[in-house]
């Protein structure tokens, strides 16, 4: 069997198979009421072509290893949940535009290449706080994302429908196909950042700062090209990777494949699956599944995560301490991060573990206002991120990435930001059926704040 150079040879983990998760407690799974129908769908899914390739996955592992060493910065972002209805040309390209604009701000400010990872082309399954929902005395299964059921509150919509597994694959493939075509067609060419302008943005308070960066990058690019005498191919395209929460294990299992030229097993539905907060139990099915695949793995880490528990989790998921294998995504909340994060950083650093640390400043800062509307305050999101940079600097570790929920649409779901959205603004354009997302301006503003903050704490801090 061929082993790649530069990647520590790793054996398949003991007693693991793509189905071994079935022997473990699997939380957050729907109840399918027709086993035969489920089995037909899974067999079909198992025959459908992959959405990504093993070489893309291994290349991303290399990029994440660089980010852990401070040579790149990870920008991971997209919707909390995709929906089949939102699989449309403007929504996909607008999301791509925001991520591209943010990455341009980050590249310019941090002087580092950015690893762009979308929460898309498969982010269809959602963990929920309760299995059922009650309205006016009627109890139905909760909505678990479009890959499982539909949000409308009636029995037919809420039934876990195995046919949706196939539709999720198809919608992921359509999204992926469009993203790849845009990128191959020059959409992400640094010579043409005007392609990324959003039609609906008229007078953003951040536009002049952004324009200056575009101008300055354009000048440097032209200067370099004059020196080398040709256009620099590297800037004509950028790479984009996909990620989603590896939640619905039947789907992940069916997309787990072996490939001719690399050893081991790959989840070929996405480059970068992550384990959510509610499914990170070391003895649970999700950790069991993820330990055996060769994709880079993200794990959400919250206030309840204890240092010894985290170290055991790392031992299971990254037995060989391989660079780029594990990304720890902390999501503590602005109020808790100062207390909860340092013990984890200390434990992981003392154990000599090579992980990439990434901050998700969204999920610890969700709150309800008014009559139960879910929102997040920009202030808190910014504050958690600010604190995270300082805490890493003080611990001698490195914050190498950020994980955000954002959209390219003009929504009003998070409060605050340059336009200081208030509680009354929320009703104007609240579209998310799950978590509130940063809109375009808030996303760009956050990218600018990251640049300022990294400038303050210094790029050289942290030698983890
Ligand atoms: C999410 O990323 O959408 C999510 C549910 O996050 P967490 O698992 O951290 O709560
Ligand atoms: Co979310």
Notes on the structure:
This protein has 464 residues and is α/β, with parallel strands linked by helices. The protein has a single domain (20-457), classed as TIM Barrel, CATH 3.20.20.70. Helix content is 37%, strand content 15%. The chain is built from 12 helices and 14 strands. It has helices at residues 35-47, 54-68, 89-110, 155-158, 163-184, 207-228, 249-254, 285-291, 307-317, 337-350, 378-395, 440-457, and strands at 73-78, 114-119, 132-135, 138-141, 241-245, 256-259, 262-267, 272-275, 297-301, 326-330, 356-359, 366-369, 373-376, 399-405. Strands 1-2-5-8-9-10-11-14 form an 8-stranded parallel β-barrel, surrounded by 5 helices. α1 runs parallel beside α5 (163-184), α3 (89-110) packs across α5 (163-184) and α11 (378-395) packs parallel to α12. Cobalt (II) ion (CO) binds at residues 80, 363, 405, 434-435.
Report the major sheet.
Answer: 8 strands, parallel, barrel
Q: What number of structural domains do the residues give?
A: 1
Low-confidence stretches: 1-9, 459-464
Q: What structural class results from the helix and strand content?
A: alpha/beta
Question: What is the CATH domain class?
Answer: Alpha Beta
Instruction: Output mean pLDDT.
Output: 91
Question: Layout of helices and strands, plus pairs?
Answer:
Layout: H1 35-47, H2 54-68, E1 73-78, H3 89-110, E2 114-119, E3 132-135, E4 138-141, H4 155-158, H5 163-184, H6 207-228, E5 241-245, H7 249-254, E6 256-259, E7 262-267, E8 272-275, H8 285-291, E9 297-301, H9 307-317, E10 326-330, H10 337-350, E11 356-359, E12 366-369, E13 373-376, H11 378-395, E14 399-405, H12 440-457
Parallel strand pairs: 1-2, 1-14, 2-5, 5-8, 8-9, 9-10, 10-11, 11-14
Antiparallel strand pairs: 3-4, 6-7, 12-13
Residues 80, 363, 405, 434-435 line the site of cobalt (II) ion (CO).
